[in-house]
Design a protein that fits this description.
InterPro entries: Isoprenoid_synthase_dom_sf, Polyprenyl_synt, Polyprenyl_synt_CS. The protein has 420 residues and is mainly alpha-helical. It contains 23 helices and two strands. A two-stranded antiparallel ribbon has the order 1-2.
């Protein structure tokens, strides 16, 4: 009953209405820096408003999933494993990454490849998203063409899109190395962090080296718009980290400020990389923005669930110490939501968490509040918005395109349900 009602509600909404509401809840990076009133926090409130317009409930989400599933009877109805779909390409990307981070100085080479070695590569989440997005936006080469020309052009495009996945992963790992130094972390991905094993100086230099390699690879694409996009990502990473380090008492209590910082530190990389994938494929500005919106909302949902897991996960499952954020004085969404319910918690947050007793008090308030639940709900809203962006892409009869879009749809929900 609920399923059919949600499906009916979604199916009655014209595509243009969905796109229109997408623009209501979307925020642009340039407005964040310019101090415009259209902040990320505003977008959060508008998400709640849009919810009343077309009910972003779980049944409605299932309605969208059902529509995508019904596009082709040749597709198997059971959920796909997104990682398996691009497993061969992921291996190619991983091998090329290992060759790209080789340095003349052995010590630097050893440091640079630390998180690219077999077994410690991580989930390779970002390359998976980008390779699936490349397939989801696949453009058929116009015919007629000489024998083999179409295949050659398709192969060249795919190689360039794989390069985006490699660049993105290098930027991501470089940011992890720098973050671990700033946070004085001693573990990452279940092993000793590079700064813990080799020292802060070498960890910083290894991160710089990865960024320089990413720049060289980026320049080889010879696409000024793509170069500008990913250069902006590096700026956003620095901006987000600086925002985190220099918060005032008022900013530490602000959900708007927190979401701005989260976009810069987490969502900018995946959103702009998805847009770059679309631009390389020659897609329209509208399609490129839909790819951007998918990546942005996926990235925000990912980080919000990370916030939850920092309180509910274990060190073994996370590959890092649980409660690491609050112990480093970083106030995240669950605590911010708890403060809305219990204003007296603000005094504890203002005091900071150098005193372990303040951590215990904050956790006690969090346990009494709906902070964890509301953070999950906000993450689900962003996952739903990622789904809407995906569903708004131009229709295609290509089975590989449909399969990749289904996989991206599933990834949006895996982000919500993951436990590590």
């Amino acid at each position: 009953m609920l399923f059919s009602r949600g499906l009916s509600r979604i199916s009655r909404i014209p595509r243009n209405s969905l796109i229109g509401c997408r623009w209501l809840v979307s925020y642009r990076p340039d407005t964040i820096l310019s101090g415009s009133s259209h902040s990320v926090g505003d977008s959060t409130q508008k998400v709640l408003g849009c919810r009343e317009a077309y009910l972003w409930s779980l049944p409605a989400l299932h309605g969208i999933r059902h529509q995508i599933h019904q596009q082709s009877s040749s597709l198997i109805e059971e959920e796909l494993d997104p990682f398996s779909l691009v497993a061969d390409e992921l291996s190619l990307v991983a091998n090329r990454l290992r060759s790209m981070v080789v340095a003349e100085v052995p010590k630097l080479a050893s440091a640079a490849e630390y998180f690219f070695k077999m077994g410690v590569e991580g989930k390779r989440f970002r390359p998976t998203v980008l390779l699936l997005m490349a397939s989801a936006l696949n453009v058929q080469v116009p015919q007629p063409l000489s024998d083999g020309v179409g295949d050659a052009l398709t192969t060249e495009l795919r190689t360039r899109q794989q390069c985006i996945a490699e660049i993105t992963e290098m930027i991501h790992v470089a940011s992890l190395l720098h973050d671990d130094v700033l946070d004085d972390a001693d573990t990452r991905r279940g092993i000793g962090s590079l700064n813990f094993v080799m020292g802060n100086k070498l960890a910083v230099l290894a991160g710089d080296f990865l960024l320089s390699r990413a720049c060289v690879a980026l320049a080889s694409l010879k696409n000024t718009e793509v170069v500008s996009l990913l250069a902006t990502v590096v700026e956003h990473l620095v901006t987000g980290e600086t925002m985190q380090m220099t918060t005032t008492a008022e900013q530490r209590r602000s959900m708007d400020y927190y979401m701005q910082k989260t976009y810069y530190k987490t969502a900018s990389l995946i959103s702009n990389s998805c847009k770059a994938i679309a631009l390389l494929a020659g897609q329209t500005t509208e399609v490129a923005m839909l790819a951007f919106d998918y990546g942005k909302n996926l990235g925000l949902a990912f980080q919000l669930i990370d916030d939850v897991l920092d309180f509910t996960g274990t060190s073994a499952s996370l590959g890092k110490g649980s409660l690491s954020d609050i112990r480093h004085g970083i106030v995240t969404a669950p605590i911010l939501f708890a403060m809305e319910e219990f204003p007296e918690l603000r005094k504890v947050v203002d005091k900071g968490f150098d005193d372990p007793s303040n951590v215990d008090i904050a956790l006690e308030y969090l346990g009494k509040s709906r902070g964890i639940q509301r953070t999950r709900e906000l993450a689900q809203k962003h996952a739903n918005l990622a789904t809407v962006a995906l569903d708004s892409l131009p229709e295609s009869n290509d089975d590989d395109v449909k399969k990749s879009r289904r996989a991206l749809l599933d990834l949006a929900q895996r982000v919500i349900t993951r436990n590590k």
